[in-house]
Amino acid sequence: MDIVLLFKALILGIVEGLTEFLPISSTGHLIVFGDLLDFHSNGKVFEIAIQLGAVLAVIFEYRERFTKILTGIGRDRSANRFVLNLAVAFIPAAVVGLLFSKQIKEYLFNPVSVAAMLVLGGFFILWVEKRQSGKTPKVGNVDDMRPRDALVVGCAQIFALIPGTSRSGSTIMGGMLWGLERKVATEFSFFLAVPMMVAATGYDVLRHYKLFTLQDIGLIAVGFVAAFFAGLLAVKALLKFVATKNYVPFAYYRILFGGLILLTWAMGWVDWAE
Predict the structure, then answer these.
(1) Which of 46, 84, 93, 174 lies 20 to 30 A from 211 at CA?
(2) TM spans, by residue (predicted)?
(3) What residue ranges do the domains of the chain occupy?
(4) What is the DSSP code (8-state) at residue 62?
């Protein structure tokens, strides 16, 4: 197996794990870094598969909670409400994704589109943080969320189908605008990633399994493991960060990173793939 390709898969796995749960768009970073490294997988299966590695980091970090919920389904009221909330939040983006995933991948999966959304999303985060500053959240615990709270977060997640927007950014900011406390919005975004990415991985694998080769399996394995450990680090760090800080630094990072890509494209310094 080509050692250079394995190294590229390792880098992209780390990028995925570190960015999946931050409001800076993991898909956008994978597109940009994939273009820089000249790494392009069949049908984007590699990118989807390694996202599952990052999601497993959430399952591992919250393993006690997930175990309690799974064993309490049908018997425990809080477990039933939690599962209902995830189901309600999952549906909007899942339906829209099924209807328009082909068009989105065909027209929006390129570095320039990603950069534009990174910049716009950065300004949106700044606006949300300023708007919510000083306001008392309506929901201070994930267990206190109602189905309508979950539906709002789920509708916000639809915007994440546009590469560069960020799934976590959409759900966290949408939740905060609705009145969820910052940490509550962050945790629910983590939990919502589990059914969303498991479904996306399964769907893409079923569609493209004939394109898999032995080399693909090796690359995915390397990227998967790297994404898991990087994701675990990111989850722990983000929870600690939002306990005392806001998302403004991530907004500035988005604006600078996206702006740099747009500048290099406009000046012709980098020939970004279209």
Answers:
(1) 93
(2) 41-62, 82-101, 107-128, 188-206, 218-239, 251-270
(3) 3-267
(4) T
